[in-house]
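haha ok so turns out i had the wrong file open the whole time. this is the CORRECT one, sorry everyone. sequence first:
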Amino acid sequence: GTSVTLTDAPVTYSGNDTSFAGSINAKLSNIAGLQNMFNIENATNTSVLASFGLNLSNDQLILGSDYGASFLLKTNGTTALTLDTSQNASFAGNVTLSQPTNGAEAKLILTSKSAAGNSRTGIVEYDADTEKIFFINESTTVAAMTSGGNVGIGTDSPAATLHVDASGGGVLRI
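then structure:
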């Protein structure tokens, strides 16, 4: 194989093979708080085709493109994750959410904007200590499910297979 050492000067590749035809420039840059950004640009340096780097001030790994193309993450030649240009994500296979900190809940946080532009948040949360799944809407637990199969609506501590607790009175337990 060929190895290339990058310095401040761009590295230019020109070629014509089955996967690429044309010319690109690759360079390692330090850009306003972004350290060691590796950019692949078009031959005229007017568009970033792909970027890879670290934002050390925010502890972020950055992958990106100005090219207007989808981002694909592949393993063994199979696409595992696709991010399209409308910021939609699709996954192939299973998705695992894990919270490695003892005593902390694993959360799936869903945020959307209303027609008026207000942010709204819904959370699905698993608490390993209580062995419950909570459904939270705007900071209020609206439903819960226990490891024993009890489901609560309007309560986070269901005492029956189906436990409905209406605000302002009325309780139904089945």
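The longest strand covers residues 21-31.
again sry for the mixup
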